[in-house]
Design goal:
The chain contains 8 helices and 30 strands. By secondary structure, it is α/β, with parallel strands linked by helices.
């Protein structure tokens, strides 16, 4: 059995962060989301992984390499344009060479991995297995309607009036029959080959498609709020590690990880929180559910429930930074001056809330 990870797409819902980086490489708990997917696949006993890449191919390939650091073998499959999930399956047919496979969307996180799901599929009896989860905002996802006996009745992509609250989770399991489906369907009105249409084709043509409703947490991290929630979930699992230098006037509470070369001076750090390598935390408060990546500085400021990417700086801002995501080398600082004013320089599609 093989795996197919989707690491293309534009990440438009996370702009401006994704103007300069692949959405699958944005970190939660200081680890790129894509790494969690690879670890889940490896832990399920799958070592041959195809990775669909698009405009951010160079960045993804640099981050993953040949997969040897995870003990897997990675093959890159270019996708000329984001033409839909079923299109990604279609262009992977030669790589799969008749094998069954798990398709994993690279910006998704699933509780407890996928080993049990892989084992269930390997036990046989179906051509496809789809994961479903109850969600409050089903119109933003592919949605499944089940028959009275629990089998799949129909699938609809992002319906205006969802027939159920069961959304398709970003993990799918297929045997080689799925290639008949993706080669038979036509593009949707939005110009994409939809995976919901491909699965519906399997259902309509009497192939066996098994639904599996998951009960643990699942996160599609395509939006800021979901990214922060995923960060919160992963930080709840950390174990304290202290590799940096903490002075006597600093207080550390709860589970906190601190990387090599980081110095924390006259500050309060309240976990769960993770601070990377080579950071400077001085006269600061780092509150729960904060992930501060390598080379960051937080000076004379307060942060909580936020993600700082490498080398971000927060200096003397005079108020608490919360529920925020700061990109690489981003700077938020207080400027002295009279009269007091707010001064910004923002990229396309940026959002600023001042309270």
């Amino acid at each position: 059995m093989k795996a197919l990870i989707l690491a293309g797409g534009t990440g438009s819902r996370l702009r401006p962060i994704t103007f300069t980086r692949a959405k699958q490489l944005v970190p939660v708990a200081n680890k790129p989301i894509l790494f969690y997917a690879i670890e889940s696949i490896r832990d399920a006993g799958i070592t041959d992984i195809g990775v669909i890449v698009g405009d951010t191919a160079d960045e993804v390939m640099a981050a993953l390499g040949d997969g040897s650091k995870w003990g897997v073998s990675i093959t890159y499959i270019p996708q000329d344009a984001p033409l839909g999930l079923a299109h990604a399956v279609k262009i992977a047919e030669d790589y799969m060479a008749g094998d069954s496979f798990v398709m994993y969307l690279g910006d998704n996180l699933i509780a407890n991995g996928i080993t049990a799901l892989i084992d269930e599929f390997r036990a046989g009896g179906c051509n496809a297995q789809i994961l479903l989860a109850h969600v409050p905002n089903a119109s933003q996802f592919g949605v499944a309607e089940l028959a009275a006996d629990g089998t799949i009745k129909r699938l609809i992509e992002k319906p205006v009036d969802p027939p159920s609250d069961l959304a398709l989770v970003g993990v799918y399991l297929f045997d080689s029959e799925v290639f008949k489906a993706v080669n038979a369907i036509e593009p949707s009105p939005r110009g994409e080959l939809e995976i919901t249409d491909a699965i519906q084709w399997l259902v309509d043509n009497d192939y066996t498609v098994r639904p599996h409703i998951i009960t643990g947490w699942w996160k599609d991290t395509g939006r800021l709020d979901d990214m922060l929630e995923a960060n919160r979930i992963m930080l709840d699992m950390i174990v304290s590690e202290m590799h940096g230098e903490v002075d006597a006037s600093t207080r550390v509470h709860g589970r906190v990880k601190v990387g090599v070369g980081t110095t924390i001076v006259n500050s309060v750090v309240r976990g769960p929180a993770v601070i990377g390598e080579g950071c400077v935390i001085r006269d600061a408060y780092i509150g729960p559910y904060s992930s501060i990546h390598d080379g960051c500085a937080v000076i004379g400021s307060e942060i909580e429930h936020s993600i700082l990417l490498p080398r971000a700086r927060v200096e003397n801002i005079g108020r608490r930074l919360a529920d925020s995501l700061m990109g690489c080398d981003a700077v938020v600082r207080r400027a002295d001056g009279v009269p007091a004013a707010t001064r910004v320089m923002l990229g396309d599609k940026s959002e600023v809330e001042i309270v």
